[in-house]
Amino acid sequence: MEVKEVLQVKESALYAVHPDSPLSEAVIMMAENDIGSVIVMEGGKLAGMLTFREVLAILAKRQTERRVGPTPPIAEILVIEAMDRNPPTTNLGMDVDELRRIMVDTHTRYVPVMEGDTILGVVSFHDVAKAVLEERNMENKLLKAYIKDWPSP
């Protein structure tokens, strides 16, 4: 199975923010749309990814800094301060097993799918698991039908 097949079974909406956007706007977008990541775009190109992991990390960092001085509210934190500037990416032809290995090795739950400089979508660990499960279920049904129709000796 290839990444293009995973993209076919998921919602195609892309959610993006600018690096200079307030982190609070990105968090609101993620919460309102029940998504775990947004792409960060600048000049029509991928500038990074922002996931709930980066949000939690910057909030924890700011809370730790609070011990030595006042902590700015989340509305004053910019996306660029929290985002992953160099997320792993994939392409339509990558094998899903290779993508899973990359996701596991880099502890990444969301991977942008690229074609050159163009972002085609974002594949999540959940999307990959769902696509693999559906493929396995179809294979099982086909194998069971084949065995059921096995000719008698």
UniProtKB/TrEMBL annotation:
Pfam families: CBS
SMART domains on file: CBS
Leader sequence residues: none
Keyword Lyase recorded: no
Domain CBS: 9-65, 83-138
Alphabetical keyword list: CBS domain
Domain of life (superkingdom): Bacteria
Protein name as annotated: CBS domain containing protein
Biological source species: Candidatus Accumulibacter aalborgensis
Taxonomic path: Bacteria, Pseudomonadati, Pseudomonadota, Betaproteobacteria, Candidatus Accumulibacter
